[in-house]
Amino acid sequence: MDSSLHLLFISVFFLLRIHPGSSQNGTISEPDYRSLLSLKREFVDLRGVLKGWNDTSPEEACKTWIGIKCADGRVVFIRLPWKGLGGGISERIGELKHLRILSLHDNALQGPLPQSLGRLPNLRGVFLFNNRLSGSVPSSIGNSPALQVLDLSNNRLDGFIPHSIASNSTRLYRLNLSYNDFSGLIPIDLCHSPSLVFIALQHNNISGQIPDEFGAKKVNASYKLQSLALDHNILSGKFPSSLSELVTLRDINLSHNRIAGGLPDELGSLSALSSLDLSNNEMSGPIPEAVGMLTNLSVLNLSSNRFAGGIPGSVRNIGGLTSLDFSGNSLTGEIPKSLANLSNLVSLDLSYNNLSGAVPSALVQRFNSSSFVGNKQLCGYSNMNTCSTETNPRNESQPSSSSSSSSSSPHDHQKSLAKDIIFTAAALILLFLLLICCVLLCCLFRKRVRNKSMKMKHQQQQQPIRRRRSEGEPGYETGGKLVHFDGPFVFTADDLLSATAEILGKSAYGTTYKAVLEDNNEVIVKRLREKLAKPNKEFENEVSHLGRIRHPNLLSLRAYYLGPKGEKLLVYDHISNGSLASFLHGKGPENAIPWTVRLNIAIGIARGLSHLHIEQNTLHGNLNSSSILLDERNSPKIADFGLSRLMSTSSTTGDAVATAGTVGYRAPELSKPKNSASAATTKTDVFSLGVIMLELLTGKSPGEEEANNGVDLPLWVASVKEEEWSGEVFDAGLKSEADLGDHRFHNTLKLAMTCVDPSPAARPEAGEVARKLHQTWHGGDGDEEEDEEKPKPL
Ligand SMILES: *[C@@H]1O[C@H](CO)[C@@H](O)[C@H](O)[C@H]1NC(C)=O
Ligand SMILES: *[C@@H]1O[C@H](CO)[C@@H](O)[C@H](O)[C@H]1NC(C)=O
Ligand SMILES: *[C@@H]1O[C@H](CO)[C@@H](O)[C@H](O)[C@H]1NC(C)=O
Ligand SMILES: *[C@@H]1O[C@H](CO)[C@@H](O)[C@H](O)[C@H]1NC(C)=O
Ligand SMILES: *[C@@H]1O[C@H](CO)[C@@H](O)[C@H](O)[C@H]1NC(C)=O
Ligand SMILES: *[C@@H]1O[C@H](CO)[C@@H](O)[C@H](O)[C@H]1NC(C)=O
Ligand SMILES: *[C@@H]1O[C@H](CO)[C@@H](O)[C@H](O)[C@H]1NC(C)=O
Ligand SMILES: *[C@@H]1O[C@H](CO)[C@@H](O)[C@H](O)[C@H]1NC(C)=O
Ligand SMILES: *[C@@H]1O[C@H](CO)[C@@H](O)[C@H](O)[C@H]1NC(C)=O
Ligand SMILES: *[C@@H]1O[C@H](CO)[C@@H](O)[C@H](O)[C@H]1NC(C)=O
Ligand SMILES: *[C@@H]1O[C@H](CO)[C@@H](O)[C@H](O)[C@H]1NC(C)=O
Ligand SMILES: *[C@@H]1O[C@H](CO)[C@@H](O)[C@H](O)[C@H]1NC(C)=O
Hints:
Phosphorylase Kinase, domain 1, disordered C terminus, binds 2-acetamido-2-deoxy-beta-D-glucopyranose
């Protein structure tokens, strides 16, 4: 599939818009042309990226100018990220009345944001992050009614955030003003936006209270906010209880502010909340039992506040909690034993409180002393502070003299030795040494902290931007619809449509592209052949099933897009190492692939397939080595599964191929005359799995044409006498391993041959293949790894 990688860079937008028959006016309009030339004049283009933008050729502008996309002679995209551009952005950008996307992120642009940006009626996406823009944000920017994404993060912008920023942009989805020098208050209008999903204002100098207006009940519309990042500002006041009415919230980060007061009980209604970070504030009072109602929480950080009282026992109800940090408060009482029931907890920090009693032994086994230090009356978490039992009270009051380095009260120590001058002197010297150590450490630490914070802005410039997940969020696109399943980042329909795309391959079902989104995240986009796909409603039913399938060996479907003209796009994770086909057949003989790598690939595929068959009741239908992708550790991910479910069953002539698998991998019963019910089954998938195993063992490609080094693999292997297997059959890269007469290679080959048995009934199920492979090579029954996949014995 991807063996012939076309080096063709286009935008997904154009894949959709340019239909045969729709006329395209190539010549740029006069005002747009003048505007682009003014933009160029104000940029400082040291690398000469914009050399081609010259005034000799208006008719070329839309066709060849780098970074420009037009529609009907009007500029719709300017995309010039990572181009080393300096200088400023010309005011005359305001003449590009049809501009939809302005993307100049990761350059060295200076000066103010053009006022005229707010006069662009079609503007949807503004990506100017990672530059050196300064001055304030023009208040007119909120006037662009189509605006969906405004990302000005990591610049040197200052002044107030304009109140109108969200009031006229009823489609604003993501607002990112983080890492600037904004001051003043959080604009109340932000709280009224019916469309905002992400608000990122962290690392500024924003003061005042968090507006109480955030509560959804006070505003009427459907509030969609999922992520609220306000950390590293100077916000004060209380934690507004109205915030808890935003039941869609997933992430709240208020760390490093000056928020005081208690945590309201109402918090418990944030049932979707998955991370809550209130660390480094001035909050006080008890931690309410209501935190136990946050059952979807995975990160809870209340460290460095003034919370008092006990650790609420209800915390045990948060089964998915992975990280819990209550350190640096004034919590008292014992550590509830039930904390040990949090089986997913990987990080626990209760240090520096006033907790007392014995640490539950189940916790001591899982967490080391750094989770508990700094609680004077807490014991039993390390050898040095065993709990004083009734028989041995001295143990606590008089720690052995050798432990003075960890003792937190050197005064007692000194007193008890006062009689003996020598010992006193020794203790004093020790103390003195300790002090010097402390001072040295302090200096070192502060230096490091300073270095770190200086690096912070710098790093921000290089790191790929990760976006938070979103689920079931329809995007706002002209007539189109984008639906996300869970995933590592979220994008709008416009992000997707304006992505740069590169064709990876074509198949019976459609064309596959690699698309690079505005923030440099990569996804795989599959455009289905419209004529073959099911009608929208049925399609959505089926695709939402596929979107829920998650397994380490199955490629995750992250989103789908339905275009206004019936276009259907599927968006998948991008996997770095390409397909198994190119991995196996695209290398020279000098790059022999070791058997362990091949074996892991085979086991992974069998497991993925088994999960698909048994847990998901879904067939693959077209398994071949091009539809197996490898990640950076060469762990396989099966792609393209279940696509036949998205296709209409009334496939007309010629499309039969689409449902019957790829030549070379197709089970014999599928090639029989059409009279019989020759439909795909789990056994036809297993046949394809068998062929892939043969491919891994022999290194040969089961191609369509004999001329192309392709062979009918099952037939070919069967034709070689079993006694001659080692010499003839195995891949040259494996011969040295297989030649040793290792019977396990023979057993594996036999297993593959049963998978390609002409009789479907003789073929094993995929789960059995996985288990046998594991047994043969890793011993045991391999059950521990397969438990989850094999609920029922076969
Ligand atoms: C093409 O665009 C130019 C400039 O905007 C305009 O003058 C011309 O009429 C357009 N032609 C068509 C066929 O739309
Ligand atoms: C103008 O740009 C075109 C490419 O767009 C290039 O071929 C041509 O040489 C340039 N002309 C001048 C005068 O730089
Ligand atoms: C906002 O921008 C910062 C810095 O560029 C980035 O780290 C963060 O992920 C962005 N957040 C959102 C929600 O876009
Ligand atoms: C919103 O748009 C309307 C019409 O363009 C304008 O009159 C109004 O002043 C705008 N509101 C803000 C707060 O800019
Ligand atoms: C932040 O704001 C405070 C007052 O609100 C001001 O004193 C301080 O200088 C500001 N800091 C920066 C870095 O702008
Ligand atoms: C929101 O309130 C406005 C008037 O304040 C009203 O016109 C609109 O219908 C309300 N929307 C909903 C969803 O209740
Ligand atoms: C909150 O923000 C701080 C600083 O930006 C970051 O270190 C921390 O990981 C964030 N918390 C969560 C839960 O994401
Ligand atoms: C719980 O949080 C996860 C993200 O961590 C999210 O995918 C899921 O939808 C949330 N569950 C609910 C019920 O909101
Ligand atoms: C909690 O927040 C503090 C301060 O922001 C941070 O140092 C600490 O690492 C966080 N805890 C966890 C477990 O992330
Ligand atoms: C902790 O889990 C065990 C079994 O998993 C259960 O018996 C016990 O009641 C639980 N304790 C609490 C406090 O929930
Ligand atoms: C916690 O301990 C500190 C010093 O160890 C003490 O000053 C403080 O009063 C204690 N707080 C409570 C609530 O016991
Ligand atoms: C405790 O374990 C953490 C990692 O889980 C490690 O970073 C830390 O250094 C350990 N502390 C001690 C005192 O062993």
